[in-house]
Recover the amino acids of this structure.
DNA sequence: TAGGCCATCTGGTCCT
DNA sequence: AGGACCAGATGGCCTA
């Protein structure tokens, strides 16, 4: 196909297409033209070729050239539509906690969707947990009438970040997996945006493992100041989420 | 070589 | 009527 010829080895899902200039060298289009010349249908066993409806009849009245132009236009629109879809898919891949790069195989579409779903579930549970912790902190504050006793004086972090900042490293030190969890990133991130996968320059875990078990996101995940850590050690998924996941992956 | 993934073409259907 | 959306078919590339 022309798209395969124009794409590089990493199988971009949104290949740069010079549609108008290259399309007429397309084998499929040449076959299409040849078929139209000979009057032979391109696919003799199409179940939908029975062709009923006003549009089909109207097309029968068109000249060969008009029909060809119409086909090219429709094909081009469909191609653009699929490219837009692939662009959106690429955008989704960019925000997934998964390594990217020339040496890393790109997530397939189905994998991207499944991983995105798990990621959303995980972030949701992180948010719920954070809300609970913040509520606990403020509850303690109101009882003791003194925030300074609750918050360490040297801490400059906002109260909403404290639970995660203090919990995550301690959790990881308990398990002793600090080699895989780099403590501090060297690049500042927006506090409310998820870490882009491009920033997470770690080797990708085996894809099937990651997809089958969202808890395995812990292997090789970094902690970000002020961000909920989605790794399994910091944020174990609730049982309901796990069951949901197993349902979706049962296939 | 089989199977997975993908891009593209194509006709039908639905919507504006 | 035209465009968007969808699903089936087809063929190419890549990997185990």
């Amino acid at each position: 196909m022309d798209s395969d010829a124009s794409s590089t080895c990493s199988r971009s899902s949104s290949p740069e297409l010079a549609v108008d200039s290259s399309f007429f060298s397309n084998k499929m289009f040449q076959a299409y033209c040849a078929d139209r010349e000979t009057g032979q249908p391109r696919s003799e066993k199409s179940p939908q070729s029975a062709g009923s409806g006003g549009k089909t009849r109207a097309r029968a009245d068109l000249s060969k050239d008009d029909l060809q132009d119409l086909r090219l236009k429709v094909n081009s629109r469909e191609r653009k539509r699929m490219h837009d879809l692939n662009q959106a898919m690429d955008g989704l891949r960019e925000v997934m906690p998964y390594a990217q790069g020339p040496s890393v195989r790109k997530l397939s579409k189905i994998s991207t969707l499944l991983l995105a779903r798990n990621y959303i579930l995980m972030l949701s549970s992180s948010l719920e947990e954070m809300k609970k912790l913040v509520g606990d902190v403020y509850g303690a504050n109101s009882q003791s009438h003194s925030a300074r006793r609750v918050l360490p004086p040297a801490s400059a972090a906002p109260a909403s970040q404290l639970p995660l900042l203090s919990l995550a490293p301690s959790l990881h030190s308990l398990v002793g997996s600090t080699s895989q969890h780099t403590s501090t990133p060297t690049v500042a991130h927006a506090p409310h945006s998820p870490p882009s996968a491009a920033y997470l320059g770690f080797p990708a875990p085996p894809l099937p493992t990651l997809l089958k078990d969202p808890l395995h996101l812990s292997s090789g995940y970094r902690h970000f100041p002020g961000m909920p850590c989605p790794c399994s050690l910091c944020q174990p998924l609730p049982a309901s989420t796990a069951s949901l996941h197993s349902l979706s992956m049962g296939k």
